[in-house]
Design a protein that fits this description.
By secondary structure, this protein is α+β, with helices and mostly antiparallel strands. It has 7 helices and 7 strands; from the N terminus they run αβααββαββββααα. A hairpin with a 2-residue loop joins strand 6 and strand 7. The two termini are 25 Å apart.
Length: 211
């Protein structure tokens, strides 16, 4: 799967894709608000968090939710692979909710865009949210508190099928900023949550296919 992802993002001699802002319909906004109010996200916060640490510790298996660590120059992150048990509707809700949880950590959404391009026989759509820390100072130093640096959340869909959510952070290295928190710390704030109840598990089917 990871080899497929590397090929998917390999540069090609094609015209650059056009990005445009994502606009949810009123019905989607209402449906997502109900999904959040009913705490359906609890079905995947803890399982993805456990899967990440299993992968990090070298114990990741072929069963359950799959997570891949990302290590790039100046950027850390993880890929949360789509699982059919989640359903495309819930996966899109989950993508939106991760961004909402970032807002609660002192961030603002700088953009929410998407683009679609064709690569050979594939039609790839990428939804991207970029988050920047709110400009607040630390009283001890007067430096801007960058929290976990810049955070990006991507949802990649190929031929209409969700593939994965990619979450990354990278530190601002310019003078005047506090040191950035680690990706593991960011993930703890986003995903460390109680397990789902039977009631929240029963709601998976309601949102399985529709966002």
């Amino acid at each position: 799967m990871f080899n497929f992802i590397q090929q998917l993002f390999r540069p090609e001699e094609t015209a650059p894709a056009a990005w445009h802002a994502v606009a949810l319909t009123a019905a989607q906004v209402r449906r997502h608000a109900r999904w959040v109010e009913q705490h359906v996200f609890l079905n995947w916060l803890e399982p993805y968090y456990k899967a990440y640490h299993l992968r990090k510790g070298g114990a990741g298996g072929s069963r359950g939710l799959q997570v891949q660590q990302l290590h790039e120059q100046g950027r850390q992150g993880a890929i949360f692979f789509f699982d059919p048990t989640i359903g495309p509707g819930n996966f899109r809700h989950f993508y939106e909710h991760l961004g909402e949880r970032l807002l609660g950590l002192g961030y603002h959404r700088a953009c929410a865009d998407q683009c679609t391009q064709r690569k050979q026989h594939l039609r790839e759509t990428v939804l991207k949210q970029l988050f920047k820390p709110n400009p607040t100072d630390c009283p001890d130093t007067g430096h801007c508190n960058q929290r976990f640096g810049l955070v990006t959340i991507d949802l990649v869909v190929v031929n209409g099928q969700p593939m994965f959510i990619r979450l990354t952070n990278n530190a601002v290295l310019q003078p005047g900023f506090t040191p950035a928190g680690s990706f593991d710390e960011l993930l703890r704030h986003l995903l460390d949550a109680p397990p789902p109840t039977p009631a929240t598990q029963a709601l998976i089917a309601e949102y399985h296919n529709q966002f």
